[in-house]
C-alpha cells in the first residue's frame, strides 16, 4: 500500500505568506500530500520565508539547521525528508541558500510556486532545483481551485490576494525586489475565488496586497477597477459578511476608497495605514512621498467618512539620520492620531536597498531606547481604545473555541480578539456581545442573542500551519 505523504508548511512574515502557504498546500495536495502540524512527521518541509528584516532572515538559517538534524534522524529510521525554501528569502538569496544549506532540495520564489511539483521532480540528491523567475504569465492561473474541504479546515476568516508586488521603492524596503512589480488580479478571478470561499463557509475576507489600495485590476467591463469598486462588488456576494484589506499606502487612499468606508456596511471600520515616521525630512529620505501633515489630513478625511474607524500603523525607529527631534515628531504624530494598534520596528539595514548606503546610521542602543518609548506610547493608546469598548455591544464573528472549556473566541469589527461563554453560538455566527471587560490580550464579552440569518454550519479550524509575526 502506498504510504500517505505528509507536508509541513511553516510561514514567516506577512499575511501574504500565509495565503501563499495555503496555495502551496493546495498545489501539493494534488500531488498526494496531506498537511501535518508535526514537522517530525513530514516527508516534505516547506519554509515560506521573509526577508524584511535581518532577524527574519536569521530565523530561516537557524530553522534550516534544525531541519538538517531532523532529516538525519529520520534517515536513520529509513525515512526520506525533502526540503523546500520558498518566499522572499528564496527570491533574494536563492543561490546563497543552495550554497550554505545543502539540506535544501528546492528553492522557489513567490511568483513561481505553482511549479513546485516539477521542481520537486527535477531535484535529486545533491542536485537542488532553483526557480526565482518572475514569469510573465500569472501564477494564479496555474494554481488549482481551492477545495471545499481545505477551505473549511482553515476557518471562517480567509485571506485573498488581489494585488501583488510594489512599485513604491521606499528606500529601506526589500519588497519591490522580492515580490516584483505591482500586478493586480482581474476582478472576475477574485470574484470567483471569493464565491468559492463564501460557498464553503468563509464569512470574513481580508484582501491582500503589498500595496493593496493601488489595486487596478481589469473589470468584467474591460475597464480598470479601483479597490473601492472591487470592495463594492465583493460585498454583494451571498455569505460575504465582512471585508477588510491590507496593506495600504497613504498615497493611494483615493476618494472612492474613502467613500466606501462610509457606504459599505460589510467593510469593517479598521484600517492599517502605515506612516513609518513623523518627521518630514525622514519621510522624504524614506521616499514615502507624503508629509506628516498630509497623513494627518488624510486621517481626518477617513474619519469624516467613517467616524468610528480604528487606525493602525507601522513605524520604523532609527532610520539613518533620525535625530532626537525627528523621533519626537513621530511621538507627536502618535499623540495626534491615537492608533488603536500598531507595529513598530528598529530600522534594519537591508543590503541592496538605497538606505543601506546612507551615512549616519543610528546606534543600536539609541534605536532600542526609541523603540521602547514608542511602544509604551502605542500600548497606552491601544489599551485606552480597548477600554472604550467596555459597556458597548459589538458584533463578534465567532472563529474558534476559546482557551477555557465552554468558551468561544472571535473578532470584533475593530479586529480585537473577544472571548465569551459559548451559549448557543457556533463558529461562523456573528453575535452581538456586551463587552464587560478589557483584558490585556482580548476583550471579554457576554452573549445578548444570536442574529437571525447569521447562522452558518460550524467550521473547524485546523492547527496545521504556523506563522510568526513579521
Ligand atoms: N507594504 C507595506 C508593508 C511592507 S513591510 C507598506 O507599505 O507599509 C511591513 C513593515 O515592515 C513596513 O511597514 C515597515 O514598517 C517595516 N519594515 C520594512 N522594511 C524595514 C526595514 N528595513 N527595517 C525595519 N522595518 C522595516
Ligand atoms: Fe515596502 Fe514601501 Fe512598498 Fe510598502 S510601499 S512594500 S514599505 S517599498
Ligand atoms: Fe512579506 Fe516578508 Fe516578503 S513581509 S512580502 S514575506 S519580505
According to CATH, the fold-level topology of the largest domain is pyruvate-formate lyase- activating enzyme
Rounded to the nearest angstrom, the radius of gyration is 23 Å
User: Quick one: how many beta strands?
Assistant: 22
Shape: globular
Helix percentage range: 25-40%
Query: What separation lies between the terminal Cα atoms?
Result: 42 Å
The overall average pLDDT, rounded, is: 93
* Quaternary structure annotation: single chain
Strand count, sense and barrel status of the largest sheet are: 7 strands, parallel
Number of domains: 3
User: Which distinct ligands sit in these coordinates?
Assistant: S-adenosyl-L-homocysteine, iron/sulfur cluster, FE3-S4 cluster
Q: What are the low-pLDDT stretches, counting only 5+ consecutive residues below 50? A: 452-470
Q: What's the CATH class label of the largest domain? A: Alpha Beta
Strand content: 15-25%
CATH 4th-level superfamily of the largest domain = tm_1862 like domain
* Count of alpha/pi helices: 13
CATH architecture annotation name of the largest domain: Alpha-Beta Horseshoe
Category by helix and strand content: alpha/beta
What does this structure look like?
Catalyzes the methylthiolation of N6-(dimethylallyl)adenosine (i(6)A), leading to the formation of 2-methylthio-N6-(dimethylallyl)adenosine (ms(2)i(6)A) at position 37 in tRNAs that read codons beginning with uridine. It is found in: Cytoplasm. This is tRNA-2-methylthio-N(6)-dimethylallyladenosine synthase. It comes from Chelatococcus reniformis. The two termini are 42 Å apart. Strands 1, 2, 3, 4, 5, 6 and 22 form a seven-stranded parallel sheet that branches. A five-stranded mixed barrel has the order 17-18-19-21-20. The chain folds into three domains: 127 residues, Rossmann fold (3-Layer(aba) Sandwich), CATH 3.40.50.12160; 249 residues, tm_1862 like domain (pyruvate-formate lyase- activating enzyme, Alpha-Beta Horseshoe), CATH 3.80.30.20; 55 residues, Nucleic acid-binding proteins (OB fold (Dihydrolipoamide Acetyltransferase, E2P), Beta Barrel), CATH 2.40.50. The protein has 470 residues and is α/β, with parallel strands linked by helices. Helix 8 packs parallel to helix 9 and helix 12 packs parallel to helix 13. The radius of gyration is 23 Å and the shape is globular. The chain is built from 13 helices and 22 strands. FE3-S4 cluster binds next to helix 1, helix 3 and helix 6.
